[in-house]
Task: inverse folding
């Protein structure tokens, strides 16, 4: 029987406990899960590609069937190259669904054999996004329990030399 591989794409800038929850749910559904950072030239991430790869690897350490990678270009082309049968997307709110639904339909048009699986994080993570996490960190708010400890440490280091608002001080 062919191995069932799923891709969980995102910018993961940074990875949150909500992402981790989706990873844990996804790995129960598939033989292998590839957490893949999509390189989007339109976005300016807080953390470099290497930093994000490191944070994800630290977070999923010990999860044998989880791999960490990155890609550039169309997700469907990357998924075909990796032999994936599905893409996992996390949904937090109805507004996420509208956007993700459009992407899923386009992916299906481009690659009819690639399924999209929508997973909701647990209720305690439903309000978390990387953008909100960065905003809380920028102003020195408490991140305990919202991101892995190694991510919390990196966020504190990144913003410790900045004044409120993110400007160098």
Result:
């Amino acid at each position: 029987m062919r191995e069932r591989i799923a891709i969980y794409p995102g910018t993961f800038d940074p990875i949150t406990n909500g992402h981790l929850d989706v990873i844990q749910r996804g790995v129960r559904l598939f033989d292998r899960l590839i957490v893949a950072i999509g390189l989007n030239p339109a976005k300016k991430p807080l953390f470099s590609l290497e930093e994000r790869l490191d944070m994800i690897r630290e977070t999923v350490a010990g999860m044998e069937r989880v791999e960490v990678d990155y890609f550039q270009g169309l997700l469907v082309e990357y998924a075909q190259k990796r032999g994936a049968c599905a893409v996992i997307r996390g949904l937090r709110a109805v507004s996420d669904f509208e956007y993700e639904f459009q992407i899923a339909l386009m992916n299906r048009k481009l690659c009819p054999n690639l399924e999209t699986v929508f997973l909701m994080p647990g209720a305690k993570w439903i309000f978390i996004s990387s953008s909100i996490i960065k905003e809380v960190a920028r102003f020195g708010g408490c991140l305990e329990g919202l991101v892995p400890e190694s991510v919390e440490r990196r966020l504190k280091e990144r913003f410790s030399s900045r004044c409120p608002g993110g400007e160098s001080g």
